[in-house]
Amino acid sequence: MTVDLSAQNIKDLMSRFEQQLKEVRRKEDLELIKRDWVSKDGFVKELFKGLRDVPADQKPAVAALLNDLRTAVDEGVLAKEAALKNEALKSQLAQEHIDLSLPAAATGLGAVHPITVVEERITEILRPFGFQNVMGPLIETDYYCFDSLNIPKHHPARDLQDTFYTTTGHVLRTHSTSVQARTLQHRALFENNRLPIKVASFGPSYRNEKEDASHTAMFHQYELVWVEEGLTLSHLLGLITHILKELYGKRRKVRFVPKFYPYTEPSVGPQIDCSVCKGQGCGACGGAGWVTVGGSGMIHRNVLKEFNFDPEKVSGFAFGLGTSRLAGQLYNFPHLRSVYDNDLRVLKEIV
Question: Which of 38, 83, 101, 132 is deepest in the core (most CB within 10 A)?
Answer without folding.
Answer: 38
